[in-house]
Specification:
146 residues, mainly alpha, two-stranded antiparallel ribbon, 8 helices, 59% helix, globular
Length: 146
Amino acid sequence: MEYAKLTRTKVMTPEETQRLKAAITEIASMLYKNTSPEALENLEGIEKTVRTQMLSSVSPQIAFFLSNKQQAQIKDDLDKSRICVGELSITEKQAQKLGLEPRTHLSPVLEKCSLRLCANESYQNAEEELEALTGMKVGHSTIRFS
């Protein structure tokens, strides 16, 4: 399916936009308070810190748009999967519903990025490049077997 079709969203109401901005401001304030002053000394440090915090603290919490009720209904063994927005615990039922192969540890987008890098690089270099591009650390053995 075309990327543009996959990423279409409804337009938020002005009230929703205002609430989202307020929540983002609060999140930014919390993340700032938990950042070392050294990380804020230059733009590269700021970029890496923001990306790391987004991948570890923010994105995994909002990656799935499942209600609490749906999440509570799913009682299954969790498996860690790396996706472009961080690392998520995904149940077997969720993986089936999302079209993931069993024991897949990379999302389709992250796998495509890995394969493109591997086509031009060694697995070791692909591991380093993938981390530099996405902030996600994926071992070269995981890349090789994806």
